[in-house]
Specification:
The protein contains 8 helices and 2 strands, in the order ββαααααααα. By secondary structure, the protein is mostly helical. The protein starts with 9 loop residues before the first strand and ends with a helix.
């Protein structure tokens, strides 16, 4: 069994101001993702001001989508009874799938606003988002939240809020596969294969959906939801949706957008 490296969730305190590791990890992911995508956006004829405006819009879409996704997918009855709590984002509660939907909608709007190809922007979102996934899951691990199921494996850890039994550090599994491995695959595809716009986005949907579906087997289901469809968790059901979107986009691109090219 491994020892859980208990880390203070507060990274820095200056008087009444405190910076949490969880928020800091997301900021690092957004900054690195932005820097990675900047040269590609410049090649699409975005000015620097337009790039920073675009990223601001996408981050806003991420926050709104992530929050609404959590409200709708994970705890709708509670928020219907307490609508004022919907905006209480500081109390926690974000959904990756909801955030992804928020980003996609935002990019579709921005593509029209800036008169750019929507699939080129979705491709950049796909590979850029892996930074946020990686660091976001590290933030979950530091917070000791979203821990895994009970295990007798040597990788088991006793989490502060997870009871006395050792559990899978599923946050680290997700950081590695959904963040690092997904980035590596997308980067190789981007550099080695001359794919037309849109395919990188569809591949990312398949990668994230597939990895998340499998890794949910190690993650403790949400206590208030449990298994919602036989042996499937909410995360797995939403991952099936992500896989379906990836397959649907690939089908559209191959049979319609690029059929005669």
């Amino acid at each position: 069994m491994l020892n859980y490296p208990s880390i203070n969730p507060t990274a820095l305190s200056i008087g009444p101001l405190s910076i949490q590791w969880y928020g800091l990890m997301y900021i690092i992911g957004i900054v690195l993702g932005t820097q990675f995508c900047k040269s590609f956006l410049l090649s699409l004829k975005f000015s620097l001001n337009e790039i920073y405006d675009l990223i601001s819009y996408i981050v806003l879409g991420l926050i709104i989508g992530g929050r609404l996704g959590y409200v709708i997918f994970y705890n709708l009855p509670y928020y219907l009874e307490n609508p004022g709590k919907i905006i209480a984002i500081w109390e926690g509660g974000m959904s990756y799938h909801g955030g992804a939907i928020g980003c996609i909608v935002t990019i579709m709007i921005c593509a029209k606003l800036y008169k750019k190809d929507v699939f080129s922007l979705l491709d950049l979102m796909a590979i850029g988002s892996t930074f946020g996934v990686f660091f976001g899951r590290i933030g979950n691990f530091i917070n000791g939240e979203l821990y895994g199921r009970v295990t007798n494996s040597w990788v088991g850890m006793v989490f502060p809020n997870g009871g006395p039994e050792p559990r899978h550090p599923s946050q680290l599994y997700e950081a590695f596969f959904e963040g690092f491995v997904a980035f590596l695959v997308l980067w190789i595809v981007l550099k080695k294969f001359n794919l037309k716009p849109g395919y990188l986005f569809s591949i990312n949907c398949l990668l994230y959906g597939g990895f998340r579906f499998l890794l949910e087997q190690f993650r403790e289901p949400d206590a208030h939801l449990g298994f919602i469809a036989g042996p499937l968790t909410m995360g797995q059901c939403l991952s099936i949706l992500a896989i379906s979107i990836g397959l649907g986009v690939s089908h559209y691109l191959f049979h319609h957008r690029y059929k005669h090219t």
